[in-house]
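Review form for a predicted model. The reviewer records the input and the model, then writes brief findings.
Reviewer: anonymous (R2)
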Amino acid sequence: HLLAEALGLSSTVAAEGLDAQQALRVTGQAALIITSRYHPIVFGLAAGVPSLGIYGDDYCRIKLQGALEHAGLERWTLTYEAITRREVLPKALELWRTRASVRRQIESCREAWLEESRQRWTAVLRALIPPTTA
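Model under review:
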């Protein structure tokens, strides 16, 4: 809400308690995502939406930074302690200002992600279908 206020955005959605389908729809339509959850970042990256992850422990840090790392964006994370130090708004404003270039960076990864997925599922299929013997 602070970011929306600073930017003068009245159409901001603070989405909480969404199921996966709802989260997919909302994040795909977003201009920017700020979340402490893994799936909004994954869905956001798939839709090319710049995302800022906030974490409170190493487990969550690894998940959020790991998801963002696929696009070379792992620096777009903050700790919960950063909230108390009032670092979230400046970081979010920085991401907002650079969102066009961040979006281009995400989109530049799309073809590699698709190829990686094709290769993975081809390998799964090969593992499930035994070779024929003549």
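Findings: The first helix runs from residue 2 to 7.
Further findings: The first strand starts at residue 33 and ends at 35.
Recommendation: see findings above.
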